[in-house]
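Appendix B. Chain record.
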Amino acid sequence: GAYNDIVFQGDAQFVIPAGETLIPRAGGVVKVEKEFTARQWYPIGFPFNIASVTLDVDNSGTQTAIEAWNGTDGDFWLKRYEGTAFGYKTTMNAGEGYVIKFPNAYGNLTNKTLTFTSSANPVLKNTGALPTLTDNYTMVANPSVANVNLTNPDIYYLLNSTRTNFELMTANTTLKPFEALIVKKEEVQGGLRAISIEDAVTGLDDIRSGWGEVISIHYYNLQGVEVQQPMKGNVYIVKKLYESQQTEVTKVRF
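Structure tokens predicted for this chain:
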């Protein structure tokens, strides 16, 4: 059948018949809803471009657009390995792998809905091989919406249990949909034993650390009038009140 929006929840997979692809109807998108724990890195990647990341900040049912840290402002950290080290990114491109982490301000995200929304009309596949590498070490995403079997421990690096390093895979495993890893060129002899994310604290947590969770959120138009429901495409002033009674005011485009 045809779908406007295709939603994946958690690790659930949308089953596509073998050898086939699926494209949402005109204007349709893919939405991936995932759960996270604050202050932990997660490997993440998509076989389509991500147009927006939204979060139900206060469990009100309203999704609020959030943005990656750009060096001076943002709501979460997003990094990508670039051959020799991890660097901060602000967008997620199809096929590329990243690590993502959220600050303490969002508390335990398992009780909130976090949604990654694709650009319009992505093509979904239930099979796909990891791409041919051009660099010695490349961070890539699962190219499909099904598990990819990994059977060469000498070239795949997976995020370890402490979520601080990528380490060589020690046994055959699977790469789940919307997850990422680092791949080494097979002709690279020896290679790195581990690749560190280099988790240095940035200003994002310096600002919000210790404030507790958000207990209320209010939206105002640019004339200062409070609105109940932000409209897509407009800019609003967002005022958040934390458990510590600290307030944060930001300007957000929905």
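Further analysis of this model is presented in Appendix C.
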